[in-house]
Structure formats: structure tokens, C-alpha cells
Amino acid sequence: MKNPCIDAYYRELYKDMRVFGLDNFLFEILEECSLEELDTKEKYWIHYYNSYEEGYNLTRGGSGLLKYDYDKIKELWDQGLTTEEISKEINIRYDYVTTILGILGITAKEKLKRNNTPNDSHSRYSKKVYQKDLYTHEIINIFESVSEAADFLKICRASFREALKNHNNEYRGFYWEIDNDSAKEQRDFSSRKVAQIDKDTDQIIQTFPSLSQAAEFIKGHVSCISKVCKNKANTYKGFKWRYI
Fold first, then answer.
1. What are the Cα distances from residue 154, in Å, to 4, 89, 94, 98?
2. What is the 3-state secondary structure (H, E, C) of the chain?
3. Closest CA to 71 of 106, 100, 113
4. How large is the greatest C-alpha to C-alpha distance in the chain, in angstroms?
5. Contacts of 189 (CB under 8 A, 6+ apart)
6. Which residue has the higher pLDDT, 240 or 64?
7. How far is the C-alpha of 54 from the C-alpha of 70, rounded, in Å?
8. Is residue 123 very low, low, confident or very high in pLDDT (cuts 50, 70, 90)?
9. Residue 224: pLDDT band by 50, 70, 90 thresholds?
10. CATH second-level architecture of 186-243?
11. Residues whose CB falls within 8 Å of the CB of residue 159, separated by 6 or more in sequence, listed in order
12. What is the pTM of this model?
């Protein structure tokens, strides 16, 4: 049997509220109606905003009851079905299935191993995720997928991606990258020399053997110095920066 408190805690709406803050959510009355019309109106507005497929509604409306059965999902998993197959079998969203399996103790690695077959359209989520030091960008941990990283952080995959997007890949005191040639970038951080330059006179103040050492010296971020070096920003920490 599921624990209703745990169930509510892990729902996408409440997880996103914890990630992005209540101030980023709007609460408003869409329409006032009689009690007899409630089910019909609920279905109408869920369909109008497509909030079952692309929002937080867990049903298509009308009943007020959750459509999924934890015991049934676990039973189908134990029968060998993939996350996508379970989603189709009981007609609920893929991300809800993978979240529920996590609550039931199925690890991201177990889900990935079973899901990552040639016919599984969700195998694209197997990109590696790199957890790095916020300042030096040294690799601290490597996850085999976005799902595994999200499970590690106790957050759903979609919320993890959104958090990185909204915070320039910085989240919970670390810098994160999703399989974008991070190993090559790591070598660049360790080998490319960089100059710290006076923004008014354009005179070189000092040089550093790598971006990582420059960032550590000024208590800054490797990515921000890199942006200036790539002409994506003018200055950082009051200085110009250039590869040499």
C-alpha cells in the first residue's frame, strides 16, 4: 500500500514548488459554477489547458481520484515490463510511472537498464550527467543518466532540467552538465592558459595556467570566465579575460 503523505510529497506540483518557490506559481479562479457542473467544468479546463499531458493534473478530471495504482505498477514492473510499457498499459504519463517506481524503491540504474533497449523511445534520457565543483568545475560525480542524477537529488527529471536551465547549470551548490563533451571541456579547463586584463587599459594584470586556477584565485566561476574568453560576455568580476 502507498503512503499518502509520501505520495503527495513526490507529486510533480509539490516538488516544483519546493524547487522554484511558491512565488513562481499563480493561483486564480478560472470559473465559478454549481456543484452539479463541477465534474464537467473540471474536464473542460483540463482539456483547454492540456494540463494532463503538459501540466500538473494527474487525471483528465471528473472524478477527483488519482488514476494510478502503486501495487499494479509494481506488479507490472515485476512482470518485466519497461517504464514505457507500464505507461501504455495503464494509460498514465511516463514521468509519473518513473517517479512512482522510484518511490517504490526501483533505482534509476534499474529503470535505465530495462528501459534502454533499441525500441524504447526514452533511451535518449541515458545521457551522462556530470556533477562538478561550483568554482573549479572539477568533476565530483558522474551519473549514467538524467534520471539517475534526479533520483540522487530526490527531484523529478523534468524539474532537474528546468532548474539547470533557470540557474545557468548551477543547482544545490554544484555545477551540472548533461553529456556535452564534458571530458573535453575538463581537459580545456586544465590546459588552456588565461589572462586577467584591466577592463579600462587592456593591460594584462596576470596570467593563469588554466581557467580552473583563475576561477579559484578570484573566488569565481569557470563558466563565467569562459564566457568572456569566448566573447559571450564583456567582463567578469570587474576584469576582461582572454585565452593566451
1. 17, 26, 17, 12
2. CCCHHHHHHHCHHHHHHHHHCHHHCCCCCCCCCCHHHHHHHHHHHHHHHCCCCCCCCCCCCCCCCCCCCHHHHHHHHHCCCCHHHHHHHHCCCHHHHHHHHHHCCCCHHHHHHHHCCCCCHHHHHHCCEEEEECCCCCEEEEECCHHHHHHHHCCCHHHHHHHHHHCCCEECCEEEEECCCHHHHHHHHHHCCEEEEECCCCCEEEEECCHHHHHHHHCCCHHHHHHHHCCCCCCECCEEEEEC
3. 100
4. 76
5. 136, 137, 210, 211, 212, 222
6. 240
7. 22
8. very low
9. confident
10. Orthogonal Bundle (1.10)
11. 12, 15, 16, 19, 150
12. 0.36
Enumerate the domain spans of the chain. Answer: 4-118, 186-243
Handedness of CA 138, 143, 146, 150 (dihedral sign): negative
Query: Any idea which residue has 499563480 for its cell?
Result: 26
